[in-house]
Every structure is written in structure tokens, then in C-alpha cells.
Amino acid sequence: MQHARQRDHQLARLSNLEQKFKQWEKEAKLEAYDHSPIEVIEDVEICGDCRIYLFNGELPAIHDEETNARREKEILAGEERQQPWRFSSDPHNRDESFFTHRSCECCEANEGGDRYYVALVRDLYNGRDD
Ligand SMILES: [Zn+2]
Fold it and tell me: What average pLDDT does range 89-98 have in this prediction?
């Protein structure tokens, strides 16, 4: 009996160590991504209006006043919806646009049109207290 209890204790200890190692391995892999503890979602498709706003800070001014105001709201709401994720440039540096009928993943504009690849990133340790 004594041996069985010792063995169970050792097995529990090993399993605990294994879990710790797996967690450590996962974090090390994420940090190796670009030396910062962030999580990344690739291949997010956004429209030209959103791209200009997200990377140059300019809201659309190319339509009539009413449309500009509506687009402004849609784009800002789209950015807000992603939190705690935020848009970031494409890690593969694909600058070319491509045509698709899928909605913009920021403002949700659903007319077919040109889209660009970007990424969504999130600070891995944001809000964690360990
Ligand atoms: Zn958009």
C-alpha cells in the first residue's frame, strides 16, 4: 500500500510539472513570434476606407457629407468592436488589394470591393495578474 501511495504522489507531481512545462512552451513560442508577448490573428480583410483610417488616421472625406458621417461612425464602431484586439499591419507585408464580395472585417461594409490584409493583435499579458 505504501508503494502505491508513493507512486500516485509521484505521478501527480509529474503531471503537474508537465502542465507547467506545456504552459511555458506555449508562452515561449508566442514570444518568439516577434519578441513580444502578443497574440496574432492573420489574414483579416478590411476595406480601403478602414485601412486609411487605421494606418493614417484619416476618416473618409471622399463622399457627400451624409455618407462621410455614416462611414465615420461605421469605421469607429468597427475599431471599437475588436477590443481588446487592435488592428495591426499585415505581418507578410502584402500591400496589394484584392477584390472580394466578403464584408470588411472592421466596418462591416458589405458591398463587394477592394480589401487589404491586416492582422489583429492582442497583448497576451494585458489584464493578467500573475
Ligand atoms: Zn471597412
Answer: 92
